[in-house]
Amino acid sequence: MRFGLFIPQGWRLDLVGIPPKQQWATMRRLAREADAGPWDSLWVYDHLQTAPIPTEEPTYEAWTLTTAFAASTERIRLGQMCTCLPYRNPALLAKMAATADHVSAGRLDVGVGAGGWFEHEWRGYGYGFPSASERLAMLDEGVQILRQAWAGGVATLHGRHYRVDGAICRPLPFQDGGIPLWVAGGGERRTLRIAACYGQYTNFDPTPDVWRHKSAVLAEHCRELGRDFDSITRSASYFVVIAETERGVRDKLDWIVRHYEPMLSADALEQYRRNFENGPLVGTPDSIVERLIAANADGMTYALCNFVDSAYDVTSRDLFATQVIPALA
């Protein structure tokens, strides 16, 4: 099993209290520590303002950070979970990604999705709010443009949503064969079919029953398309709350509530509390290893981990790195 690490970037209100002029230094330090191991990759979210509610707290832009991390690290792979493809012209995104791939000397992964749940962000930035079917059609066309640009250095597509006429993408990506593509989301008719057509990786809900169902849907799309199902790495994203003892886990959950309490309504705070308490990777190292072994038996081979407290206290991250990863890697 491989392991990725999310770097706090403000979106989940995970830099609150750190002076803005010190936030990049904090993110860079965490990235360099991850680069030293044992993590396989580090990740950012592609969001433009905070969640679950928009605030004026800083949120750092994903692709700027990706390129900054490419220049600040030496070993670790870099990804976005996931790029909201309709936010950027896909020919421009192909160029941005090829550039970042060279800055990183071939360590880039590109995660893409249709976006859609954070309507306030869409409208606030002037993108409107296309229907789900329109966003998925944009994802499909956009992925075709990315693949053309990376494979041959030129992209042409006259689609319903995008029109590019000989867009030149030079340099080609540093990685031979193009940049690995992650297609994120569990939409059964469109998203998982796009993943079966084009993706090297997927990322969807890790809840065991949901995971098994989505995997079966993906397998059926692969069968229909003549794609080798086992050639697609299936990943999941987790909020991790870990401590040596159950009491320690409770203390960390209490800290999470205290951290968010000044910024969220009572209802939103209660929803956050339930989300963290009921997460698959909440517990002691032994219990988390047991759950990951079960997930691995279902085909989950790449876990992307978010530690909500990592900008303030790295003990959770380090405990996972020393007691969970060695048991599974």
Notable characteristics:
globular; 10-stranded parallel β-sheet; TIM Barrel; two-stranded antiparallel ribbon; 329 residues
Describe this structure in words.
With 329 residues, this protein is of the alpha/beta class. The chain has a single domain, classed as Luciferase-like domain (TIM Barrel), CATH 3.20.20.30. It is built from 12 helices and 12 strands. Helix 6 crosses helix 7 (208-225). The longest helix is centred in the middle third of the chain and has 21 residues, at 132-152. It is globular and about 60 Å long. The mean pLDDT is 96.
Please compute the radius of gyration using only Cα atoms: 19 Å
Number of extended strands: 12
Order of helices and strands: EHEHEEHEHHEEEHEHEHHEHEHH
Q: Mean of residue pLDDT?
A: 96
Strand content bin: 15-25%
Count of domain modules: 1
Point out poorly predicted stretches: none
How do you describe this structure in short?
The protein is an alpha/beta fold and 329 residues long. It contains twelve helices and twelve strands.
Note the topology.
Blueprint: E1 2-6, H1 20-35, E2 41-44, H2 62-72, E3 77-80, E4 83-84, H3 90-103, E5 110-113, H4 119-124, H5 132-152, E6 154-158, E7 163-168, E8 181-184, H6 191-198, E9 201-203, H7 208-225, E10 233-242, H8 246-260, H9 266-277, E11 281-283, H10 285-297, E12 300-306, H11 315-323, H12 325-328
Parallel strand pairs: 1-2, 1-12, 2-3, 4-5, 5-8, 8-9, 9-10, 10-11, 10-12
Antiparallel strand pairs: 6-7
Helix pairs in contact: 2-3, 3-5, 6-7, 8-9
